[in-house]
Design brief:
Number of strands: 8
Shape: globular
Strand content: 15-25%
Order of helices and strands: HEHEHHEEHEEHEE
Strand order of the largest sheet: 3-2-1-4-5-6-7-8
Number of helices: 6
CATH class: Alpha Beta
CATH architecture: 3-Layer(aba) Sandwich
Distance between the termini: 40 Å
Structural class: alpha/beta
CATH superfamily: NAD(P)-binding Rossmann-like Domain
Length: 225
């Protein structure tokens, strides 16, 4: 089967013409972000930029899915290597640094920008949101604490007044990294929920702005737009 048919089973769900116009930006490629980046490359997103200053450590192997051969490598480079193997035609930019507000000026002006925020800190989320909301088409934020997932999404960030209300002061945040207790299956589910909202946006459907999933209690709550 020719490579042009790689997306044949998803075309009615992920419009190829709209997808071809997109540039995905994944900020943070640890637990959730690595899974988001790999799902997007498998999906066939044509361009993607990855941001993360960290290197792969031994504690990242089980909950984040990195390979033992990745130990000591930049996380963005390790993720980019797999993404390129999944989808050789993808144009990838790996930035082994923290996201900076000035980064938005380097993103292509002729593309629809979709930002996937996969970071630990509320202050970092606030910086990202304030930097990108006026110029992007889609935004998703994945949050995880042990086996509890929250996914926030916006299909029109420039007009979104709800997301900012989730950016509570840092001193009110849960003390400790959101990845202090983490599993690969929780991260994969969170990434899937984020990419599913991206697919809804590609189809022109309203996104679900706030989803909360507790795997321990088997409870799911969604707020309609």
């Amino acid at each position: 089967m020719p490579s042009s048919d790689r997306d044949i089973r998803q075309r009615e769900l992920v419009p190829p013409a709209k997808l071809a116009q997109c540039h995905a930006v994944v900020i943070g490629v640890g637990a959730i972000g690595r899974q988001v980046a790999l799902q997007l490359s498998a999906l066939g997103v044509p361009q993607m930029t990855l941001y993360d200053p960290d290197t792969v450590a031994i504690e990242n192997l089980a909950p984040q899915g990195f390979w033992e051969s990745d130990l000591g490598r930049s996380k963005v480079e390790a993720v980019a290597d797999i993404a390129k193997k999944q989808f050789p035609a993808i144009e990838l930019t790996s930035v082994p640094e923290r996201f900076r507000a000035s980064a938005v000026w380097s993103w292509p002006a002729n593309r629809e920008i979709a930002v996937f925020c996969c970071v630990d800190a509320i202050d970092t989320r606030k910086l990202i949101w304030q930097s990108v909301r006026e110029t992007i088409g889609f935004f998703a934020d994945g949050r995880m604490a042990a086996e509890v997932i929250r996914v926030l999404a916006s299909g029109r960030p420039c007009a979104d007044a709800a997301y900012a209300k989730t950016l509570f002061p840092a001193q009110e945040a849960y003390i400790g990294s959101c990845t202090a207790k983490s599993t690969i299956y929780t991260a994969n589910i969170a990434a899937g929920l984020m990419v599913a909202q991206f697919a809804r946006w590609l189809r022109g459907w309203p996104v679900v702005p706030d989803q909360l999933l507790n795997l321990v209690a088997a409870e799911y709550h969604a707020q309609e737009e």
